[in-house]
Task: structure prediction
Amino acid sequence: MITSGLVITLSADANLATRAVAKISARVEFTPGERNGRWLPVAMEARDDVESRGLHDWLTALPGVEFVDVVYVNFADLERGPAEGQPQHARPRAVAASEVNHEH
Amino acid sequence: MNIDRRQFVKLSALATASAVAASRAGAATPTSSAVTAGADGIKWDKAPCRFCGTGCHVRVGVKDGKVVAIEGDRLADVNKGLLCVKGYHVGLALYGKDRLTRPLLRRNGRLEPISWEEAIETIARRVLAAPDKFAIYGSGQWTIPEGYAANKLMKGGLSNNHIDPNARLCMASAVTGYLSTYGVDEPAGCYDDLDRCDVLIMWGNNMAEMHPVLFSRVIDRRSRGEKVTLIDIATRRTRTTEFSDHYLEFKPQSDLAILNGIAHLLIKNGTYDAKFVERFCRFRQAPKDPTATPTAPLVGDAMTFDEYKAALAPYTPEYVEKISGVPAEKIRLLGDLFGRRDLRITSVWCMGFNQHTRGTNVNRLCHGVHLLSGHFGRPGDAPTSLTGQPSACGTAREVGTLCHFLPGGRLVANPEHRKDAETFWNLPEGRINPKMGHHTVLMFEKFCTPTDQGGDIATLWVQVTNPGQSLPNLRKLFKAKQGLEDKFLIVSDVYPTATTDLADLVLPSAMWVEKNGMYGNSERRTQQWFKMVNPPGDARDDCWQTIAVARKLFDLGHPGMKDKDGKFLFTIKNEAGAEVPVWDWQHYYDVNVDKALFEEYRLFTRYKHKDLAPYEEYVKARGLRWPVVQQANGAWRETRFRFCEFDDPYVKNGAEIQFYHSTTKDDKAQIWFAPYEAAAEEPDAEYPFWLCTGRVLEHWHTGTMTMRIPQLHGAMPHAYVEMHPEDAAERGIANGETVAVRTRRGELKLPVWINGRARVPRGSLFIPFFDQRFLANDLTLGEVDPISKEPDYKKCAAMVVRLSGAERFPATPGEKTL
Result:
C-alpha cells in the first residue's frame, strides 16, 4: 500500500472545479479534505506503484484539475520492498519489423 | 496493513496536504510540522532533496532502519511543503536491488570482490607510483565536506590540481559570467525574486519540468490573482510554453543576437537607465590578448559607452529577426519591457545558456541587459542562474573543486591565495602547485590517450558522478579508455553505471541520508542533514574513502600527507581534544567528521564575503543564504540580496549598490559586449538537423537513481528522439518507429516521439540523456567555450535514417510504447 498526500490546484473555472471535486470524491481511492480556495487536499491510497501512477495520471487528466503536487508519501507497506532494481545494462533485443508495436 | 494504522497514515497524509493547501491559499507559514515525531513508530528528520539544485527540503520518515515515508518540509522557505515527482520518491532511490555493497577489483576482465583494505591500498600504491598522473573527478553531488576533503587531498596534499567536478559540464559558464561581470561568483538575488517579479523571462530554461517547485511558486501567484507575465524564450515548445504569455522560438545559438537586440533598443530608444549605469557600471569587451595574464579573459578590455553603442548598432530588430527567427516585434516587446522602470523583471536560465560554445558571453550579455536597464538590485529585478546538481554551488563552486580554484573563490595561480590556503591548512610554503590542473574535457582526453602519446593521466578516481554517460563525445572522451592497459579507473558509486562498466576498481558508496551531509543550492543556501539509516552491505561514505586513502599514503611515507608540524593532513579531534582515527571505518562516526571539516572550510569563506555560520546554525535551520553574518546580539543573519545596501551588510552606508568585488576595483559591475557568433557545428546538406539534448521531468541527470524507482521508470521508461511531424512525414517515419540518429561522432537507434510532451520546430531533434541504453552523448560535440571550458550539449548537426525492417526493435520489450 502506498499512501500519498496530494494538493490539487483546481481550475479558475468554478463549474469545472466543482465537477472535478465531485469526481474525485466519488472514487474510493481518494479522501478529500476541506477545499481552501483553489486548492484541494486529498489523501490517496494505492495498492502498488502501478496503481499509484495510474491514479495520478487520472487526476492530472481530469478537466478542472490544473496541477497535482504530492507533499507526502508513505511506502512502508509496499509489498515487494521499496523499489525494484532497474537493470540498465540490457539493451533491447533486435526484432523483426512485424513485431514493432505502432500503437501510441 | 492494520486498519487503525492505515487510517492513521491516511490522516497523516491528509493533514499534511491540508496544511500545504492552506499555506498556498495564503495562510501563515507554520512554525512546527504537522506530523509528530515518533508517531506510529516513524522517526522524522530534515534533509535537502538529493536531486536537482533547487534545494527543496524534505522530511524523511525512518522506521526499522529504513526510509519509509517522505513529505515536503513546510518549514522550508524554498519549497514550502511542495515537492516534485522526483522529490517525493527520493527515499526510494536508496533501495534499488542492485546497490553496490562490496569493493570490486577487475581481474582477467571480471570485477571480483575484494576487501576495503585491499581497495584502499591499491589506490594508494597507484597514487604513490605517479602522484602527478593521478586525477579526481567529482561533481555537485559531492557534499561540501566530501568535496573539501578531496580538494585538500589533491591540492594541499599531493600538490596536484588535476581535480575537477561535473559542474564543468553544467555550470562553468555561469561561473565565468558572474566573475567577469561582478568579480565574484553566484547570483546576487535569490528565489524571493520569483515572489516579487512582474515579468519572468525563462531563457532556454524549461522551468516547469526542470525546476517544477520554483515554477509552481510563480504559478501559485497567478492562482492567487496576482499578475505575472511569463516569457519563454526557447528552441522547442515544452510544458513551460503552455503556461507562458509569450513564446519566442529562436534558432540555436542566436540568443546572443537577441540579447544584443534588447541592448540596442534600450540605447536607441533612450530607455536604458543612464543614472544606474553612470553610478554602478563600466563597459567591457574581449581582450586583444587573452593570454596576457591568467585572468585576462575574465577582466577583458575597457570600452567607452560610445564604443559599446557602436558595437550594438547592427543589432536592429530586423537584423536580429534574420539571425534568430524571432519576429522583430517580439524583440521590440522585450526591449520595451526592459525599458520600463515600473516593472520588475527576473531572468532565469540553466543549461540553455551554459552548455554553449559561447556560454560565458551569453551569460555576460544577460547580466548586461539587466544592468543597462537598471533591472537589478530591487527584489524581483534580477538575473539568476539555476543549477542542475544539488551542490553545484555549495561544493563545486564555493569549495573550489574546479582545477583552477582553491576554496572560497581563490585561484591556484595567485601567490597570495596559495599562501592563504597554506596557512589555513598549516602547510609548508610552496606546497600548493601554481599550475592549473586539467579541466574535465582535457582530463578525460588525457586519460583516454595512450601514455606514450601524451596521455598524462594514468589513474583517475571518479566520485559521485557518471561521466561514462554524461561526458560529450563519449567515444573519444570515455570509451577510448578501453584497452589501455596502463590506465586505471576507480569509481565510487551506489549503483552499476556506464562508468563502472569500464572501471578497474569499484567502491560501494553510502548515499544521501545514509551519511551526514551538507549541500549548497542555487540561491546561496547552505543546508545540513544527519545520517538516518545505514548504507547497505559494506558501502561506506565517500569522505571516509578519501581520508582512508590519504592515511594509507601517510603510512606509506608520502610527505604531502603531513602538515608542516608533521601531523596527518586530516587530523580530527573529539571534544576532549584527543585525535580520532577516522581513517578506520570503525571509528569514523565516533566524531562528526562533517562538522570538523566544515569548521575548517569556514575559514576560507570570508575572503569573497561568502561567510558561513558555524555548523550548529545549519543544524537548526532549513538552510541559510550566505553571507551569513553575526549580529550584535549574537544571532546569525543570512543575506537575500547581495550588493544591495538594504540587505547586504558588506555594502557601505549610503552606497545603495556596491559591487565590492569589482574586477575594475572601483565597486562597479561590467557590462560586456560580445557579438553573435555561429555555432561550432551547424546543419548542412549531409547532416540537416539541429540536435539538442537535455532532461525530462521524471529523471535526474543520467537516471542511475530515478530509473531504479518504479514510479519514475514507469512514467518515463526510455529515451526517445523528438521530431517534427512534417520532417517525419517527409521521410515516411511514423510515431514510435525506431530510427537511427547519426552525427559525425556516432549513431544511436531509438524510437521517434512526434507531438509528444514537447514539440521541436522543423529541422530540429531532441534526445534526453537519462537512459543508459540509449547514450545521447555518443552523438554530442566535444567543443567547449574557450573561457569556461564547458562543452555544448545543445547544438550539433545530425541526420535521421529510417531503418530497414530487420534493424528495427521496440524500445524495451514489454514496456509501454510512446
In short: The helical segments of chain A are 14-25, 49-61. Residues 96 and 102 of chain A are 13 Å apart (CA to CA). Chain A touches chain B through 61 residues (CB under 8 Å). Confidence is low (pLDDT under 50) at residues 79-104 of chain A.
